[in-house]
Write a structure and sequence with these properties.
By secondary structure, this protein is α+β, with helices and mostly antiparallel strands. It contains 3 helices and 8 strands; from the N terminus they run αββαβββββαβ. The strands form 2 sheets. It has a 4-stranded antiparallel beta sheet, covered by helices on one side. Strands 4-3-7-8 form a 4-stranded antiparallel beta sheet, with no helix packed on it. The relative contact order is 0.19.
Length: 142
């Protein structure tokens, strides 16, 4: 009885220390100060290293971020339009620069898989792990 209680306490302590380590922070997506680009910041070190390695290998084919122009409230017939642009890694951030400037008073849906984890320890323990990855999504209004 005592041995099983000790094992339970050790496993629980390890689990809590892993889940509370601060590695579960999501990247922050926002417009740059001049609204000329979209910046993804707060990327954990492991994900940033993967992004840099992939980017250095083939910078032209990197599709790390997708940006979609959302139709306005009165534009019910307009489809979502993907915004063409280039992605670059700058320091500890990933930057999306559109081919054409972002339009004022328009909403943009930004999706990316940077730093997305399949399942954390807490997801596995409470049974909420998903079978597929969901991108991080954020709507930005210019």
């Amino acid at each position: 009885m005592f041995k099983s209680l000790c094992k339970f306490l050790i496993v629980t302590t390890i689990g809590l220390s892993i889940s509370c380590s601060g590695t579960n922070k999501k990247p922050v997506i926002k417009f740059s100060a001049d609204s000329a680009s979209i910046v993804v910041k707060n990327i954990d070190e492991a994900s940033l290293l993967q992004v840099k390695n992939h980017y250095e290998g083939n910078a032209d084919s990197v599709a790390l971020i997708s940006v979609i122009l959302k139709p306005g409230g009165l534009d019910s017939l307009q489809d979502d339009i993907e915004v063409p642009g280039k992605v670059k890694v700058a320091g500890d951030s990933v930057v999306f620069v559109p081919e054409q400037p972002f339009q004022k008073n328009k909403s943009y849906l930004v999706e990316n898989y940077i730093g997305i984890k399949f399942a954390g320890l807490s997801n596995l323990l409470n049974g909420t792990a998903r079978h597929n990855l969901q991108p991080q999504k954020q709507v930005l209004k210019r």
